[in-house]
Design a protein that fits this description.
Blueprint: E1 2-3, H1 5-14, H2 18-23, H3 29-36, H4 43-53, E2 62-63
Antiparallel strand pairs: 1-2
């Protein structure tokens, strides 16, 4: 399973709110909902988030082995 919990930690460390992502960077509320519920996102979106947050992929998502 892919978890996007690190994404929220990265946002906090960078001092960026979800409101700022929506208004300044045109990130959709739907995408934020997908991240919140650990639903799939595209690699293009992942690339965009890494560029916006100036971070690595592992700062946005983590792999958790299925039981």
């Amino acid at each position: 399973m892919i978890s996007y919990d690190p994404f929220y930690n990265t946002l906090k460390q960078k001092g960026i709110s979800t409101y700022k992502l929506i208004t300044k960077y045109n990130i959709s509320r739907g995408l934020l909902d997908r991240l919140k519920h650990n639903k799939p996102i595209t690699t293009v979106t992942l690339n965009d988030l890494c560029n916006i947050l100036d971070c690595d992929v592992n700062d946005i998502m983590i792999f958790i082995k299925d039981k």
